[in-house]
């Protein structure tokens, strides 16, 4: 640092004697200040070449190399990729020594900037252009950047090129953990198992993350038995599972509905001296709620508290959702009170679930009270909450009040979605006011909201219900021309409309089209509500 300061001071003195009153250089200690100055300047100020002039060579390094390294570190941290490129070009021109740490810092900077392809390109140039041989650390850094950007196929291609085909680098356990993650994300579980089995051949011992990654991949492919066997194998090989390891299995078993085996895994967890954490309890509670065993789920909450494991908003949110699904929205509201007594705040999802449940159970006053209570507690409504309230009011045959909520929504800057417009159209059709329903349809287009299959289905169903078959036909043709696939509601509505107006043959033709669409798995399976003329 003293050498660097001396060099910069001498440069400034030299330039001052030549008539330069100022020199712009990049501060090593405060790079953020340099960035602020650069943003304020209308013309880009290049790095002054005199900053990089050095003295005599000392071994394989030259005086001033540390300046370059510090610049690379600072520009990498601030994400100044343009300046990084300038520094690298300057170092290459002066034939400076590149060290691997320089590249790893730049790889991370590319990762933050979502430029994985730049990282891959720089890795290829490390040895050829910069005479710096990459190690497994560089490889792991690049493949991690590629994975974080979601380029799984590209990451697999990179691995095959460097590790398998060219054998440039000997992989370590982190390399295998990363590539196993890629293979599992791509659904290539058998290939992941093969890769896992080659680790001992490469003298690489799997760690707990290796096993967790592979077990999670197996569970997601519904290969639970193999995942359980892997847990046993893991312990035999002397790799002790953590709470995360057990949670992977418990989650897989709960999603499958095998709660008995999930409970056995929890017992095994205790035997191994591994204490269940919040994620363990949340997973079990979620599994019990999925199976409709709400009383056991609530009992597990009590056990969770007794075990000094603090429930979080996910725990209560899961229980409230389970209660609402069983038609126990009032119990869900009591659970909300208990949640708030613990100092936890409910989010928009919890309020949306409760308000929707109360409306569906025929308790509109309680639902509206819940809405007012939510506002008073400072929970700002989002699109989902507004859609819940609007749909609930339309169910209560109050579409005009729902329309007023839409106007209030617009004032808050919250943009309505297709579900909201569909609810309003349905509400006005149910009230027999097709003109207002069609006005809502026009409003959808004027607000740049996508008129999707659901919107068309609601419109066609409503028009057929009030006997406006010709208008329904017009929107049917428009739906098809816009590339939308009719759903079972649209098909059934048109078939009813055609048959009721005496167009039985046309209705039968449409019914056959529906059967063909059903065989192609387009979600158009016929229901039992077909016109008598077709039965």
* CATH architecture descriptor text of the domain at 452-535: Alpha Horseshoe
Question: What is the arithmetic mean of pLDDT?
Answer: 84
The CATH homologous superfamily of the domain at 452-535 corresponds to: Tetratricopeptide repeat domain
What is the β-strand count? 2
Number of helices: 28
In the predicted model, the low-confidence regions spanning at least 5 consecutive residues are: 1-5, 11-49, 52-61, 528-535
General shape: globular
The percent of residues in helical segments reads 55-70%
Strand order of the largest sheet: 1-2
Beta-strand content bin: under 5%
Key terms:
globular, mainly alpha, 535 residues
Element layout with pairings:
Blueprint: H1 2-17, H2 31-40, E1 57-58, E2 61-62, H3 65-78, H4 81-93, H5 100-112, H6 116-130, H7 136-148, H8 152-165, H9 173-185, H10 189-197, H11 208-220, H12 224-236, H13 243-256, H14 259-271, H15 278-290, H16 294-306, H17 313-325, H18 329-341, H19 348-360, H20 364-376, H21 383-395, H22 399-411, H23 418-430, H24 434-446, H25 453-465, H26 469-481, H27 488-500, H28 504-519
Antiparallel strand pairs: 1-2
């Amino acid at each position: 640092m003293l050498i660097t300061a001396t060099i910069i001071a001498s440069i400034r003195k030299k330039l001052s004697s030549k008539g330069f009153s100022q020199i712009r250089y990049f501060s090593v200690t405060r790079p953020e200040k340099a960035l602020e100055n650069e943003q304020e300047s209308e013309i880009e100020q290049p790095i002054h070449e005199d900053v990089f002039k050095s003295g005599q060579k000392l071994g394989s390094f030259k005086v001033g190399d540390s300046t370059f390294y510090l610049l690379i570190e600072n520009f990498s941290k601030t994400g100044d990729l343009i300046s990084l490129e300038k520094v690298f070009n300057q170092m290459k021109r002066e034939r400076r020594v590149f060290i691997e740490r320089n590249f790893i810092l730049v790889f991370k900077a590319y990762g933050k900037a979502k430029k994985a392809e730049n990282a891959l390109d720089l890795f290829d140039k490390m040895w050829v252009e910069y005479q710096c041989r990459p190690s497994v650390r560089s490889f792991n850094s690049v493949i991690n950047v590629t994975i974080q950007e979601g380029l799984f196929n590209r990451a697999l291609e990179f691995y095959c090129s460097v590790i398998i085909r060219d054998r440039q680098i000997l992989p370590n356990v982190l390399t295998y953990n990363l590539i196993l993650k890629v293979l599992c994300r791509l659904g290539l579980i058998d290939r992941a198992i093969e890769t896992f089995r080659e680790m001992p051949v490469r003298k690489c011992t799997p760690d707990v993350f290796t096993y967790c990654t592979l077990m999670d991949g197996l569970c997601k492919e519904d290969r639970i038995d193999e995942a359980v066997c892997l847990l046993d194998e893991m312990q035999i090989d002397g790799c002790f599972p953590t709470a995360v390891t057990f949670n992977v299995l418990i989650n897989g078993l709960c999603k499958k509905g095998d709660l008995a085996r999930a409970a056995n895994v929890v017992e095994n967890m205790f035997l191994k001296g591994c204490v269940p954490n919040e994620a363990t309890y949340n997973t079990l509670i979620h599994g019990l709620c999925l199976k409709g065993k709400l009383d056991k789920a609530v009992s597990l909450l009590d056990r969770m508290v007794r075990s000094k494991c603090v429930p979080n908003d996910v725990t209560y949110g899961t229980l409230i959702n389970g209660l609402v699904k069983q038609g126990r929205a009032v119990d869900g509201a009591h659970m909300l009170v208990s949640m708030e007594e613990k100092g936890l705040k409910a989010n928009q999802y919890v309020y949306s679930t409760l308000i929707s449940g109360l409306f569906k159970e025929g308790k509109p006053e309680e639902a509206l009270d819940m809405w007012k209570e939510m506002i008073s507690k400072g929970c700002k409504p989002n699109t989902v909450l507004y859609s819940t309230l609007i749909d609930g009011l339309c169910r209560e045959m109050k579409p005009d009040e729902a329309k007023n909520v839409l106007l209030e929504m617009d004032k808050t800057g919250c943009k309505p979605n297709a579900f909201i417009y569909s609810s309003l159209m349905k509400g006005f059709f149910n009230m027999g006011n097709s003109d207002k329903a069609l006005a809502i349809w026009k409003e959808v287009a004027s607000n740049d909201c996508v008129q999707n299959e659901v919107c068309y289905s609601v419109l066609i169903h409503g028009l057929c219900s009030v006997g406006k078959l010709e208008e329904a036909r017009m929107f049917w043709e428009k739906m098809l021309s816009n590339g939308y696939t009719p759903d079972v509601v649209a098909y059934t509505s048109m078939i009813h409309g055609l048959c009721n107006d005496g167009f039985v043959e046309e209705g039968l033709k449409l019914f056959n089209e529906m059967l063909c669409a059903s065989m192609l798995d387009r979600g158009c399976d016929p229901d039992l509500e077909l016109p008598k003329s077709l039965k």
